[in-house]
Amino acid sequence: MALRAVRSLAILSNPLRTYSTSGPLVNVSINEKTGIATATLQRPPVNSLNLELLTELCTTLEQLEKNKSRGLILTSSSNTVFSAGLDIYEMYKPNMDRYKQFWTTLQQTWINLYGSSYPTVAVVNGHAPAGGCLLALSCEYRIMLNNFTIGLNETKLGMIAPTWFAASMRNAIGTRQTELALITGNLFTTDEALKIGLVDEVVQSKNEALEKAGKFFDKFKRIPPHARTMTKTSLRGADIQALVKSRNEEMNKLTAFINDPKLQEAIGMYLESLKQKQNK
Ligand SMILES: CCCCCCCCCCC/C=C/C(=O)SCCNC(=O)CCNC(=O)[C@H](O)C(C)(C)COP(=O)(O)OP(=O)(O)OC[C@H]1O[C@@H](n2cnc3c(N)ncnc32)[C@H](O)[C@@H]1OP(=O)(O)O
Fold it and tell me: In Gene Ontology terms, what is a biological process of this protein (predicted)?
């Protein structure tokens, strides 16, 4: 908390610096006038989150923090998928060293995004199941285009959403709705998501979403950044601390979980069903 306060106070005195962190999987552009960064996920066909994409995103978020970013818009280069969630191939017959690196990077990406000192908006311009929904939930504000689905559907896949996935959802829609959403593994339509507060606004086009995102950032023009950041930390800090404390324990459980032959069989069948869908 104290460190964050010092860092956020520094925002008041440091001028904005320009920098480039674009990589092949995450394009980063900075609006010179507003200082707002846009990170666009670009791993076709569905922006599934593999180790390489997560590493780029994690580094981008670290750079934005270091450079005292004014804000971040997280979006997708696809017209139909924001992110299909974790890359299922990272969990299917995994190499255990890579698997551990993958989870460590996912955890750190969440810590950086959920706990960022700068304001964050997800422009959800396509489907956002599971890990895709997690990314959106980790932002402060979600603007979604119509006719897509979003939710933490892990139970439908025979998996469990980790506690910090659940905490991110609870932060947005409260305990009751989170419990219902998680046990049913529901994927919400855009309108259903709006109704329960899983997204904040529904729009018809990406341009409209970007315009609304600008209005969200404008709200902070007259708010001292340190007050904003400390308030965010007071609301989200406990969730982050809970993961920081249980990181190793979680890794041990995940390792045992992923090596269960029944789970591997289920993942294999799920991958097959996704492939079959394409053949229809
Ligand atoms: C304390 C410790 C104990 C806790 C234990 C925790 C246990 C682990 C927790 C795991 C949490 C998991 C989180 C996840 O994110 S799992 C991933 C869930 N995601 C999904 O189920 C989405 C699957 N995809 C889709 O529904 C559709 O693809 C989508 C709607 C997103 C897009 O549809 P579209 O028709 O546009 O595209 P296709 O379905 O045809 O897909 C195109 C190709 O992409 C492949 N694909 C899709 N999704 C994924 C994915 N998530 N990973 C890898 N690959 C994916 C798909 O197979 C197609 O491939 P081919 O072109 O090769 O056929």
Answer: fatty acid beta-oxidation
Residues near ligand 1 (Cβ within 6 A): 45-46, 48, 80-81, 84-89, 127, 129-131, 154, 157, 159-160, 162, 250, 253-254, 257, 274-275, 277-278
What is the extent of the structural domain holding 144?
2-279
Question: Domain with 47 in it: what CATH number?
Answer: 3.90.226.10
Catalytic residues: 86, 131, 153-154
Tell how far the Cα of 12 is from the centroid of ligand 1, in angstroms.
42
Examine the pLDDT at 12 and tell me if it is beyond 90: no
Distance of CA 224 from the midpoint of ligand 1 (Å):
40
Domain count, the chain: 1
Is the Cβ–Cβ distance between 157 and 177 less than 8 Å? Answer: no
* Percent over 90 (pLDDT), the chain: 90
Bridge partners (DSSP) of residue 36 are 71
Task: Identify the DSSP state of 47.
Answer: -
What number is the ipTM of this complex?
0.97
pTM of the model: 0.93
